[in-house]
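Page 47, continued from p. 46.
Same chain as before, 681 aa.
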Amino acid sequence: MFVGSDTVNEFKSEDGAIHVIERRCKLDVDAPRLLKKIAGVDYVYFVQKNSLNSRERTLHIEAHNETFSNRVIINEHCCYTVHPENEDWTCFEQSASLDIKSFFGFESTVEKIAMKQYTSNIKKGKEIIEYYLRQLEEEGITFVPRWTPPSITPCSETSLSSCKKQAAAMAVVIPDAALKEGLSGDALSSPSAPEPVVGTPDDKLDADYIKRYLGDLTPLQESCLIRLRQWLQETHKGKIPKDEHILRFLRARDFNIDKAREIMCQSLTWRKQHQVDYILETWTPPQVLQDYYAGGWHHHDKDGRPLYVLRLGQMDTKGLVRALGEEALLRYVLSINEEGLRRCEENTKVFGRPISSWTCLVDLEGLNMRHLWRPGVKALLRIIEVVEANYPETLGRLLILRAPRVFPVLWTLVSPFIDDNTRRKFLIYAGNDYQGPGGLLDYIDKEIIPDFLSGECMCEVPEGGLVPKSLYRTAEELENEDLKLWTETIYQSASVFKGAPHEILIQIVDASSVITWDFDVCKGDIVFNIYHSKRSPQPAKKDSLGAHSITSPGGNNVQLIDKVWQLGRDYSMVESPLICKEGESVQGSHVTRWPGFYILQWKFHSMPACAASSLPRVDDVLASLQVSSHKCKVMYYTEVIGSEDFRGSMTSLESSHSGFSQLSAATTSSSQSHSSSMISR
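Result:
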């Protein structure tokens, strides 16, 4: 998927016959998330060179990879020419080569992904060309005259000045349709732009207000902010965020309105579901956090940003996770971010200039292998994921001090989850390097450098230390509290046993409704199925260990499909089974074809038995040892919406596509159904 590009070189001949442009393109590859994490990249970069020769009527496109060029070599060449026997025909030629030298042991996987991408791109190429041809026809362009050498005519200074003024005027006019489609500045400069919209008080922000609260904005950036705010006022039900907050999401997506709108709407929904706006007033951190979480706010830096100090090396992350679980830690980090937003507003008023981010000082003295405890790192990665998604452009600078030898290991694990723009704000100092030139004094006044860094200011941040093991809680206790923050609101938990699937019933009145689902596989492996029946199953019994209902402290279990029912007679399968592994998050949707009763089923997935003539695989043996019981656990949320209100399947920031497979010929009830699902690990 094309994300964006930067022009590296551009050349135009004086007569306009030759135009060569070289771009550095940013692409999002549809690859397994695990592979991206191991490779340490979220995007790949290609260099593309387009050479248009209007005199010879040829277009050559050359591309090669920049990312991993020492491991993988990809070259592609496309050529468009005029047919030698019919000038109205265009000839197209394409060739590509792939040479994988090494790729972290995933050579065959990368080769398969590359071939899949290349094949799909060839198929999609025709669709893209036809799309733009139709767009030209809609604009009234059905014929492009052949290039001819320009006739040299003098251009007066008056006409030149007029051209410049007209170009400047076009640069600040943003068509409504273009903004809705999230077009870039290049697309907006086309001659087909509509007439300028007459300015109204809402179409322009006061210059003093911008200078005081928002900072320097170009006319294009100001217009993007106004349009996005107006769209929110017209469509969003609930609290409208402040301009400063909207601006953060726009900056995080380089003022692409479409992308900024998408991530901001997801964040607003998340805030509403979990009442994040009220977390400072309604939630009190546990005493363990107040005593052993070695972090706190400490004055401000030289730019007026609030300063947060974290003594990570002195903090017992393993003890905190064992005593509290991930939920309390995540809640605490969210409260820190909410407090940071509040302090930014205060400092904006105090210093009389916009302050929209804070500085974080992280002291790593004391960091050791204990901090690399896997559940602790997992909790840290999850916290980073939530903060990156909902608090973009809030970190102004991160100062990492006294980094020990073990730090590169932690950095290797964490850095792939951090946005590129955020990573550029990191400054890392080993040993006492922070005391020298270019160190701490460049960013923090001498008077407020904390005492534990040889400064003069007493820092009231807790010193941390080991959490007493007497405060530890068992895994079962933490599990029963539903650790994940979002499970406290709209999500439900259920247990799945071997021979006892969990099922929920959804009644559909109007055909073409859309059933959406979002679930996490917390324990074990399961198989997800969707069935349709014309008649309602018998209501589940309430007995705790009966044939239809089994309850447990970690979630309930309900069975709806009667044992006497036969597949194909009493009910039918409308989607192929989807096997979901432990730890996966699955989001998807199904467009119903008929009214009736739909049953969503989560079923225990058993490992396939090995053939008698072959020995069991090592992976199978290890997997069987990890499953201590025939019990799985899922947390799920479902919703039914009208097809006219449906805008695609539910999405996650940490997701990769995994569509349901085509239905077998024996399943006739869903021959025209549609579905989509997403899986994230």
